[in-house]
Design brief:
Distance between the termini: 35 Å
Helix content: 25-40%
CATH architecture of the largest domain: 2-Layer Sandwich
CATH class of the largest domain: Alpha Beta
Largest sheet: 5 strands, antiparallel
Number of helices: 13
Strand content: 15-25%
Shape: elongated
CATH topology of the largest domain: Uridine Diphospho-n-acetylenolpyruvylglucosamine Reductase, domain 3
Structural class: alpha+beta
Number of strands: 24
Number of domains: 3
Length: 446
């Protein structure tokens, strides 16, 4: 498996480079290594003062770090220089005095990020990491706690998120690449790196004669995020094909493997949206495909267009199914590269049998799809449309004119405006149908 991305560089800076910045350096470098990002992120540290040049970190620093499993023994103090501004994308100061010194050195036109370390932590109530040099061991323990509190947020393709504000901490784009496979009879277990594009790989598998993904054609986003969402469309979910995934535990740094049961998949749901939320970074996923065509066109909209092709004498193949799915999606859903949107904004609600029967009496045309337990799934788009909100415009944001399930940003709209519209939609559906809609995208920065 390979990675392909420009390398990101991070420099931690304190006064002497023997206490705070080497602790942050060592902790973050270890996290980067255990997460498999060593080829993507480089880490260093330096000091604004020259009292300890070439010295190892303070003995108390190394002792505290070692007691937590971090080895700082190879680090040596150095002086920050103007050349660092040309080399590092992030220069992160431990306190305001360090930041002031760095700003005085900062050349005009520096395009990187210069700021305080604790600006990247969602867990700290203080602004600065205090210098422990003249204090007791508890000060060094506190430095370690602050260093472990650095927030790291992994993102994939960004197709299923709403930004309600800035994200505190370091944001990493997961761009891991590579595909491998293992043949077992008529089955092919295909392992996709988390950064591979979903639709591109669906097309690649069809070209290889590996079938099962065709109903999930043209879904935006990457392979790793697909497992978080348990994406699905036209009668197929990722869980139907899932074998396993590997993920980094951000708390321990361990690389773990999760089978299907461990992922706790549900309708547009998984462990990684609930108990495992923000804890894991998915590295790759393995799906079981087949060399034998197994046509699944039970979904009504798909069956209609396939029946039309069958009546015209066309052979119904997985490739044709994939092409028809692309055609349907393109006709119903706006292209996010043209009209900014996050796809289906609301989940199709599943309601109890009694409520479904009562609503069907009131609204005989309401579509509903019986579930195995007797409940019914109702199209959220139908509910929104029958609240009179299809095509509604609220400044720069609105409900799509052709698909009420999709919220769009015509340009210049904020995450807050989009979420306000989503809340308006939710309350309208709740008031009319007594159904509470859940949103699908992940909201960051709110």
């Amino acid at each position: 498996m390979t990675t392909a991305a420009a390398k990101l560089s991070v420099l931690f800076v304190c006064l002497g480079n023997i206490c705070r910045s080497p602790t942050a350096h060592g902790v973050f470098a270890t996290l980067v290594e255990k997460s498999g990002y060593s080829e993507l992120i480089s880490v260093d540290s330096a000091g604004t003062g020259d009292w300890h040049l070439d010295h190892a970190p303070d003995k108390r620093t190394t002792q505290v770090a070692a007691s937590k499993g971090y080895d700082l023994s190879t680090l040596r103090a150095r002086l920050v220089t103007s050349a660092d501004f040309a080399q590092f994308d992030y220069i992160i100061a431990m306190d305001n005095a360090n930041l002031k010194d760095l700003r005085e050195m900062q050349p005009q036109g520096y395009a990187g990020h210069l700021g305080l370390f604790l600006d990247f932590s969602e867990q700290s109530a203080v602004e600065e990491v205090p210098d422990p040099y003249y204090g007791g061991e508890e000060g060094f323990e506190q430095v370690f706690v602050h260093s472990r509190g650095l927030s790291v947020t992994p993102l994939g393709g960004g197709s299923n998120i709403v930004l309600a504000g800035d994200i505190a901490g370091l944001v990493i784009r997961v761009d891991l690449r590579g595909v491998s496979h293992r043949v077992e009879g008529a089955f092919v277990d295909v392992t996709f790196a988390a950064g591979e594009g979903w639709h591109d790989q669906v097309q690649q598998c069809l070209q290889q004669g590996w079938y099962g993904l065709e109903n999930l054609s043209l879904i935006p986003g990457n392979m790793g995020a697909a497992a978080i969402q348990n994406i699905g469309a036209y009668g197929v979910e990722l869980a139907d094909l899932f074998v396993s995934l590997r993920a980094i535990d951000k708390q321990s740094g361990e690389l773990l493997e999760f089978d299907k049961a461990a992922c706790e998949f549900g309708y547009r749901d998984s462990l990684f949206k609930n108990a495992g939320r923000d804890r894991y970074i998915i590295v790759d996923i393995c799906l079981r495909l087949s060399t034998l065509a197994q046509i699944n066109v039970q979904y009504p909209a798909l069956q209609t267009v396939i029946d039309q092709r069958r009546d015209s004498g066309a052979e119904i193949t997985p490739e044709l199914v994939g092409a028809m799915v692309c055609q349907i999606r393109s006709s119903k859903l706006p292209d996010p590269s043209v009209v900014p949107n996050a796809g289906s904004f609301f989940k199709n609600p599943i309601i109890p049998q009694g409520q479904a029967i009562e609503l069907s009496r009131q609204y005989p045309q309401m579509p509903r799809y019986p579930q195995a337990n007797g409940d019914s799934k109702v199209p959220a788009g139908w509910l929104i449309e029958h609240c009179g909100l299809k095509g509604a415009v609220r400044g720069p944001v609105g409900v799509h004119q052709q698909q009420a399930l999709v919220l769009v940003n015509s340009g210049g709209g904020t995450g807050a405006q989009l979420l306000a519209l989503a809340e308006e939609v939710r309350l309208a559906v709740l008031q009319r149908f007594v159904i509470d809609l859940d949103i699908e995208p992940r909201v960051y920065g709110g």
